[in-house]
Amino acid sequence: MGVVLIERTERLEGYLAIRELALDLRWSWSHASDVLWRELDSQTWEATRNPWGVLRTVSYDRLDNLLSTPQFAGKLEELLAEKRVAELAPAWFQHAHPTAPLSTIAYFSMEFMLSEALPIYSGGLGNVAGDQLKAASDLGIPVVGVGLLYAQGYFRQMIGPDGNQEALYPVNEPDQLPIQPVRTSSGEWLRLQIDLPGCTLWLRTWEVQVGRTKLYLLDMNDPANPAIYRCITSELYGGGPETRLKQEMILGIGGWQLLRALGIDPQVCHLNEGHAAFAALERARCFQVDHNVPFAEALAITRAGNIFTTHTAVKAGFDRFAPDLMKKYFGAYAENHLGIGIDELLALGRQDAADAREPFNMAYLAIRTSGAVNGVSALHGVVSRSLFQPLFPRWPTPEVPIGHVTNGIHVPTWDSIEADRLWTDVCGKDRWRGDLSTLEVDIRETSDRQLWRLRRISRQALCEEVRSQYLRQRVEDGEIEGGEDDADSVFDPNALTLGFARRFATYKRPALLLQDPQRLTRILTSTERPVQLILAGKAHPQDQEGQELIRLWNNFAKRPELRSRLIFLRDYNMRQAEWLTQGADVWINTPRRPWEASGTSGMKILANGGLNLSELDGWWQEAYAPDIGWALGDGKEHGDDPDIDAMEADALYRFLEEEIIPEFYDRDQDSIPSKWVGRIRESMARLAPRFSANRTVREYTENFYLPAAQGYAARIETVGDASRGIARWKEQLSKFWPKVRFGATSVEETKEGPSFSVEVYLGGLSPDMVKVELYADGEAGLPSHIEAMQRQRGGPVTTGLYRYTARIFSGRPVSEFTPRVVPYHPLARGPLELPNIIWQR
Ligand SMILES: *Cc1c(COP(=O)(O)O)cnc(C)c1O
């Protein structure tokens, strides 16, 4: 009896251990546990790469058997021990900021791309969210993610016989996904209630373990809900505006409620794109309840802890809702919960508060409820400052309060096993967990031979994947039977391999490479210097133009002479993206500048030794150098001018014909293209660390999260002391601002330079509430000149009238300077919180 019991207990421990490993998405970047899943059920594993799915499928007997095998059990034990150590060990954040008053950052996003085993993403936005969550885990930054669990996710792609895209919606079985219901301490499934017009509905809650961070998901497919409501969270980016509005309510309001139910009180709330902005309202509402303050004060305090990252480069990209729709869903919320009128709420999402027809813009809401705003590349920062300029009337565009943090990718997720091995040899095992400062120098130590070997192995692996998908697609098309195999004759592991895969949105110009089909065919069909092209991408089911481009490529790919040189891979997804970005020699990207806010797929190839050929847009604008890659375009915006498209297509072909192909095939005595390999080395050394999510989340932490946590803490101190509060300051300023005006101005030339003197009438405002400055525009690429003016001692000249003086040493002519008055509060952030400004002329 005793022995049986011990054995059973051991099995149970083994079972719990393997369950724990299968539910931790660490396996999506650390491949240490792959052997276990392969051993359990290699077929399911190869088809899904989903450890939890494997565990749910495998028979008890098989599992029992393996758990009693010393080798399997030993490996399991070792991996579990490693996981436990990794979870508890202090990481970068604990070392760099040991006393930081920052215990939780809540990261809200409509999509997360973590693994193909959890398909709740569409593309780049989800990629950024997923990769940052993983990097936060590596670095020990206390982030929790909040998102939605979609019953079907984003649509899946099939290509019909005429080359047209067809949309499919297979179901995500929650049972097979690596997620678990959130349980209360009594073991009950945590369900939340949310009010929609006329009914109260259940939200189900789920958790995903992502290394040391957690992602919480919400869905409405609760059988206790009426059927029509259960579909609200079925599709990502599906349905009309009303569905989208409901999804965003669930994400923002339900998401914040979920954190509250779990007892999580984040100091910082990161809104990944405007979709999530209702979280800021709900956060303020909760503060209002907890501290018994009015909405305006609650928002003024909590917004200091909110960060908004915008990802759009054009107005059309903003989420906007009709006023009537907003009234339907938010009328009661505004009045009964926030204690404000719906018009006041609508004003938060409008450029012009008084325009009753203006739709409600989620990005505007996010700006009005955040303490810091950023774009996702340096260029996108510039573009965003123009885009949001109308919210800051009369402010110079460079002063529009939007910064940038350039995106990066989670290298351990995207590097191949081979690349991982090379980097480990040269830079050590923990290289993506520190501050990366030594990587550039270390990776330069790699030899030509090592790098070229990496490329050969990676390209070979890609070829094998492409061949097997090629066979699957031929079977789908009924061209061959299941058992036939002619794939050996297609794709050459030694040929220059070009990759192009991304959403087929028109601004990405997916057909630029196809402008001259004859020329492209010539390039691809050379027998002497063979080139192959692998394409993939989906167009939104409502995007007709994007789908037309997919049809174009698929029909072009049918040309018999291209059969072994060109393939359009169906149903672009994360797994394909992994092997494509690991195997491609050159990654092509042709967006219409400046529409690509950042772009991330090109970053994925860096650590794998691929090279970029891309339009100077998004991240490439700041990454490009002539010795590491190729740049299209002249670094200027040209709209959708067809002549420019033709010119850039020509440049694209010329790069291929005159530089890329010759350089790739220019081999030394060891058959290595040494100039090419030199580019790879520099691209790896200079770009891979810089465009990693490690660098990105460290930047968010130091430049955004820590200051936000401090700002929020400082504002909480003002509760109950209205005179220090920002809400009252805003109220006072708004009341007296119309009275503020300039009086007499004079300039006196002195030996040290001109001396300005201005009089400003402040009405009932205290002079502590404003700043008076001299401003001159930036010139020739230099920043603008802003000189603070000093208030003359001894009080006002007459009631409400103050004199300010400043001396200018810059040597710039007097005529270039203009005095201005702007609001000031020691805790408030520039024009973001109060965009008033008065110029003297
Ligand atoms: C990386 C990735 C994207 C984003 O690619 P971009 O070129 O930045 O648009 C989209 N989809 C998938 C599946 C990806 O892996």
Description:
By secondary structure, this protein is an alpha/beta fold. The chain folds into four domains: 2-88, no CATH class; 100-153 and 179-323 and 362-407 and 706-711, 3-Layer(aba) Sandwich (Rossmann fold), CATH 3.40.50.2000; 415-691, Rossmann fold (3-Layer(aba) Sandwich); 726-839, Immunoglobulin-like (Sandwich), CATH 2.60.40. The protein is 41% helix and 17% strand. It contains 30 helices and 28 strands. α1 (2-22) crosses α6 (70-88), α2 crosses α3 and α10 runs parallel beside α11. The termini are far apart. Pyridoxal-5'-phosphate binds next to α8, α23 and α24. Residues 18-118 form the DUF3417 domain. It catalyses: [(1->4)-alpha-D-glucosyl](n) + phosphate = [(1->4)-alpha-D-glucosyl](n-1) + alpha-D-glucose 1-phosphate. This is Alpha-glucan phosphorylase. Keywords: Allosteric enzyme.
